[in-house]
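Much of the work behind modern protein science is quiet bookkeeping, done one molecule at a time. Below is the pair of lines this work produces for a single protein:

***
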Amino acid sequence: MLSENRLRHIAGDPDSHDAEAVAMAQEILQLRRTLGAPWAVVQPLGELYVEDGNAAMIWPASLAERGDVCLYRLEKPSPVAETAPPAAKQRSRRKKLPAPE
């Protein structure tokens, strides 16, 4: 495994390294920062609700207990999140019924 110092050296000296190696070093450093500490936790049973799209009780990471599943937040949105229509657009697709007179 590459050390933090080695990754920082590669990322900070792009003239001495291949552009792809520099980009990979920067990405690894970002992932290590992002995944260094959990953002939230969910109980193991709640993980099933997250997987099938239902609501789950998600708690701050400071309330983690033994056996909880850690959740991490990435800075970039996933491709699935970018293509999913916002909730407001989903609601607007409903047919409006005329108001009763």
